[in-house]
Amino acid sequence: MMDVKPHDLLEVGVVIGIHGLRGDLKIRPLPTGDLALPGARKVFLKDSKGLLVQYEAVRSSQHKQNILLRLSGLDDLYAVEPLVGASVWMAKEDLPELDDEHYYWSDLDGLEVIDQQKGVLGRVVGMFATPAHDILEVDGLAGEILIPAIEPFLVQVDRDKGQLLVNLPEGLIPEAESPL
Q1: Mean pLDDT over the full length of the chain
Q2: Would you identify the CATH topology of the domain 6-93?
């Protein structure tokens, strides 16, 4: 019986297919999932009905832009075929420690975003991946702001203060219209 609560988990990927005859799952990592999945020892898969099942990871490896993951006891493509489309989760306590330059999505969620020139912009409400890099979604007074999650835009994360300091170029944030 599993005693894991949803807030103890971080969604790290989605099963997008099967690779090979031994039933390796091809997983498209979500933002920051590529940092966690290569060392995974156990994962949770959630199907379209919301059923969450824990599996032991036997092997994981990088394959192009995806992660290949083999699960214990599921050793052919017929056994894993029903798992295509499932979301992949890991227990936060099982996530590998990261250096000071890398963060899991859950570390940034809800942080107050402060630009060095414009001041407070809003709060981080989402993150998504593009082929080039991850993008932070910030909700604030100017509406939705999309910030590339790369240097030089991200300057400092201060988890103690709950703040993310950014340095955005001119034109990324629309100027407020002045009333006539």
Answers
A1: 87
A2: Elongation Factor Tu (Ef-tu); domain 3 (2.40.30)
